[in-house]
Design brief:
By secondary structure, the protein is of the alpha/beta class. The chain folds into two domains: about 160 residues, 2-Layer Sandwich (Nucleotidyltransferase, domain 5), CATH 3.30.420; about 160 residues, Nucleotidyltransferase, domain 5. The protein is about 40% helix and about 20% strand. The protein contains eleven helices and ten strands. A five-stranded mixed sheet has the order 3-2-1-4-5, sandwiched between helices. A five-stranded mixed sheet has the order 8-7-6-9-10. A hairpin with a 3-residue loop joins β2 and β3. α5 crosses α6, α5 packs antiparallel against α8 and α8 runs parallel beside α9. It is globular.
Length: about 325
Amino acid sequence: MLALGIESSCDETAAAVVENGAKVLSNVIASQHDIHARFGGVVPELASRRHVENMPVVVTEALERAGVTMGDIDLFAVTRGPGLVGALLVGLSFAKGAAWALKKPLVPVHHLHGHIVAAGFNHALRYPHLCLLVSGGHTSLFRVDSPVTFLELASTRDDAAGEAFDKVAKLLGLGFPGGPAVEKCAANGDARAVKFTMPKVKGSALDFSFSGLKTATRLALEKKPKAEDVAASFQKTVADILVQRTLFAAKEQKLDYIVMAGGVACNGHLRREMKRAGDVNGLTVVWPEPVYCTDNAAMIAAAGYFMYAAEPTSPRWMDYLSLDAVANLPLSLSS
């Protein structure tokens, strides 16, 4: 079964063709970093306008790279939320129109569901497992029992880790996107030079909080330390928080297989520290290839395929014309 995935939740316009939820035939991403960089973040109106321009081009290129035509597509999958509502509407409207014209099923996908299954492209995932999903908008821990069955164990109480990277990069004058910029700057710094404390979070012992660390970084900069040392110390503290909470959750859930997903999973320091901690504690740690960590449509196509395969006769896959984009879509309403 060939699924065409469409992703437009933020500032990447993406389309991909995936066979049976596992084999990526094409994965095309049009980035908008050049547009938003001078603003230090994504401007929703500009993102939506560029999605309108990019979507037909990106879909056409995805089909051509896969060597198929629109008529060969068996299933459409599209991000319904969460994300920027204007940006989501562009992708959803395109997918609805294509599915209706071809009389094919359409599966609305929760963006986080896509990230959860993304590592399946380069790993034979074991179930159940623990997934640390860490990105610009989300930082959560999930128990994943199957490609369509998962439970959120913890989330962030304020900023996501990727959002904190972006804000600290702005404080350091490093530009946007912040994650790669901070990592590059940190490579020449001393991670012990600036002392940050681990945040205390009210409620679940697994929940995350990064707003205090962002404030501590701003205050540390008033003492005029080297930017490289601040970046390295901040990066180390974020990784320590993520590793600590993940190990605690793995022990609590009695799971020995950990998947990292989301854009921050590209961070080299975090990968090394999580792998080291896994080796010490007898845990297997895997992550997607970098292109599947950041926002992409292959993961949306895969998630859509798995949802359809779980209920292939459900009439809801053909009842999509009234679907609307949902900026803060709960996981419970993901399909």
